[in-house]
Amino acid sequence: MKFTVVTPSFGQLAFLRLNAASIAEQRGDGVEVEHIIQDGGSKDGTRDWLTTRPDIRGIAESDEGMYDAINRGIIKGSGEIFSWLNCDEQYLPGTLVAVRDFFNAHPEADMVAGDTIVVDATGEYMCHRKAVVPTTGILRLGRTPVQSSSLFFRAKLVKEPNAILFDPQWKAMGDWAWLRDQNARGARMIRIPRFLSSFVDDGGNLGMSLRAINETRAVYGALTPLQRATEPIVRGADYLRKFLDGYYSQKPFDYAIFDLDPASSTGVAAKRRSRHVATPTFRWKGRKH
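Below the sequence we write its predicted structure tokens.
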């Protein structure tokens, strides 16, 4: 099975090296990986570094933001399964093999969403988020209950006639809008119950920005009076579904990600380092949901 992984890039070479290492490691065991990096104008050495990586398809061209960059990469891609992995995200060991096997076992699935480990800039555990297949009601409220770093989808959703790409008018909530539109067209998502990726929370993420807050408010402001009145019911049903699915419980576990090299200003990836999580938590400091 061939995967196309798109990485939108802009001035994050240190993290990008780790991202690329985690993707390159996935190759083998019947998994083919096409890694496309769409760089929108980095001046930190990213473009020079890309010339040293024949295993990566690096494209340097201006874009209209992250979602436009993802679209550009998708259009160039030729995989059977697509995903996007931002510079500060990594795949965990065995992720693509697990996703391949899951898609093969579930031909009815158009999308697969797994669980995500949230770490700080040094790779230390902060919390985790388990994926929740979104309902129409939750999406209507502007909620995105899956992390994009652990989301995979079949090529037909973005390649066939009438396919849906990302709307670049959204600068922080494009993944939400895309999931909403895919849900409306009947695309089926299934959760794979395992950790697939890590995501860095360094306090400056786009999803936590003022732009994201304003876009969320705009979505909520567009709700009808009936939709606002039924919000408690929608949220209550979602909390119950999470509880029954084990969202709020997690046994201690280990994870392994590539580290930033403290001896290098560019953060050269050396090898994965394993960490143990003795007290897992779903509580993400600074996030309300």
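The chain has one domain: 2-277.
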